[in-house]
Structure formats: C-alpha cells, structure tokens
Amino acid sequence: MNLGGLYIICRRVKIEDKEEWNNVVKESPNGTFYHTWEWNDVIEKGLNSESLSVVVEDEEENKLTGIFPFFVRNLFEDYRVNKYFPSISNNFQIGCSPHHKLYSFGGPCVLPSVTNNEEIYKLMFDFIDSYSKNKKSITDHLIYPYHSCLDSALIQNGYTKTGIKKTAIINIDKDLTEICKGFKKQFSRDIKKASKKGIIIYESQNYEEDINLYYNQFQKLLIDRVIERTGNCYWRVSYALVPYSYFEKLRDILFPKKMARLFFAEYNGVKVGALINFYYKDTIYLGHTTVLRGEYNGLNVSKLLIWHIIVDGKKNGFKNLDVSGLHPNELHGQYQFKMGFNGQVKEIGMYNKSYRYNEIKHAKTIVYKHAKAIIIELRKLK
C-alpha cells in the first residue's frame, strides 16, 4: 500500500520481528512493559493463549513502524460452562489487548517519527477487524490503553469507551525523605517498626529454584485466600488461577533480562512474604505479592516490601512505581492500602467493540440455563 510515499504492509508478526518490535515499543509514547516482545511471549506460552499480534512494515526501508499486541481467549474461560460445555465456550471468544486475565495494558504503538500515524493505526485495526469477522467466534474486542494518546484512534476505528480503570503512580524520583513524608503517617510508623523487628528483604539469587518456592508457598496461599474470601465462587476463583506454566515463562524469559525480579521478606529464618515486580523504561510495575497471615499478621510485611522496592528502584534509576491497579471502591481495603503510599491516581479508559451483540445475549441465556441445571444436579449428589 502506498501511504504518503511510503510503501507499507500490515501483517501478522514473525519471530524475526523481535528486535524491531521492541524498538517500536521503546520509542513509542504508548509503549509499556506490557507491549514488549518478552511479555507477550510469556502470555502466549505461559497462558497457552492464541496470539493475533500484528505489525506494520515499511517495505522500502525494511523496518517496522507500528506494532499491536493482541490475543484471543474464550469468553467463558473463567466460568463452569468452559469446563462442562467446552463446545459452547469455544464458539464465543473475545479479542483483547492486553490479555484479559492479568493486569496489563495494550493497544497499538507507532514510531513517533511517523507523521501519518492515524493511517498506520487504521491499518492494524482493519487487519484485526477483518480477522474477527471472518473467524465469527469473536464477540467483542476489549482494549485498555495506558496513555490517552490512543483515545481518538480507538473511537475513530469503531470502539466505544465503556468505563474507566484506575491505578496509582508513585513518584520515586525524589529524595527518600520527601517520598516517605507523603505516606500516611501510620504507614511510615509501620515501616519503621517492621525494620526494627528484624525483617530482612532480599532479592532471590537463584530464581530457577525460587520460582518453584514462590508458586508452592505463596501463590497457592493466595488462591486459598481467594477461595475463602469468595466462598469458593467458581468464576472468581478461576479468574485468580494463574497456571504454573506462566511462572515458568517469567523465570525463563523475564528474569534473565532483569525485566522481572523476585524479592523475599524473611523473619526469624521464615520467608513471610514475596513480591515479583516488572521493570521497563523508567517504571516499576508491582506484579505478584503475597504475605503470610496468622501469627505474622502484625508484621506489616507488605508495607516494608513496597518500601524496599521504592528504595531499590530509586537506587537503580527508576522514576515511577505503578501499584498495578486500584479497586473501584475507594472504601475497599486494597484501595486504601495502595493509596497510603501517596501515588497519583491515573485513569485508564476501557474500550469495547462488539461484533455479535445479540448472539452473546443468547449465549449468556444458555450459560445461565446450564449453570442452573448443574447446580441442581450437584445438590442432588449431596
């Protein structure tokens, strides 16, 4: 296609595109850790997800000018219908950028040197749109862009803003004393108390073995906590289930490049907390964190872990810490905890494009009908 003197094509990504893909992400103002080749590799292989990522290539200069990470997953993947009626589930899928199971961000990225970026965006949107219509099983697209610079491009290409997600960004590019002054007073006191109690925070030096320890001792603990908190509600528990293969790919792909790091909190020789973070450009993203409860409840391990990440991140030249999402209810404990570190609230638009609205309504009716039948049968077995 001739576009303003440029001969460009839009196509599916190839393994040979890795270096140039990452260059576009690095240079683009919309590029985040969650756009990188490595993260998308983790998602595709670790979650066994169907990738539909595309690129735009300038054929004359033989280089990429735009990238778009995109995945396809079953709409009812986290519901019982996926387990008992896979034929129904397989016929209803969603396209998502980022992947819909984990905290992350998506949408296309274009090199800032490209003057006709709206046309580049349109090429990528049209490519995925054509694929979705031909496949016929895709009901919706869900896109959460980290930066508002994509808002107009999404609307121009048929997406509707359906809501807002929130996160908080802690500025760590200041003197540590100034950073700490912004915390809730109780948080500062708790961090000092935790340090005086002798809790040690250290980075894993053997992530190949320690990722197993993390999964078996901490991730499974988190799942048990979700089960307890939700009364073993299937879809809420299933949504929290992240397979071991995902952590294997973190270990194999991200840890060797220091794009992910694992920290432990130890008290009296016992590992009482663990935290996995992601690192890219000037920003740290909180990844996965779990702490032991019960007798260790009053140690304030979570606060000390985050404080350590701030100190370590500042030392290594990072400027921001993304707390990885805020609960929509400002009175919720998670929201109150994360905002205690004096982060700046950032709003992220949620965009949707529907393909089979009437069919999805029909599918939900079928799902609820089968779910009710399953519940009745399970009650008979008791």
Automatic annotation (TrEMBL):
Residues 183-338 form the BioF2-like acetyltransferase domain. Keywords: Acyltransferase, Cell shape, Cell wall biogenesis/degradation, Peptidoglycan synthesis, Transferase. InterPro entries: Acyl_CoA_acyltransferase, BioF2-like_GNAT_dom, FEMABX, PG_Glycine_Bridge_Synth. Gene3D superfamilies: 3.40.630.30. It comes from the Archaea. Transmembrane segments: none annotated. Pfam families: Acetyltransf_6 (PF13480). One of its GO terms (biological process) is cell wall organization. One of its GO terms (molecular function) is aminoacyltransferase activity. Belongs to the FemABX family. This is BioF2-like acetyltransferase domain-containing protein.
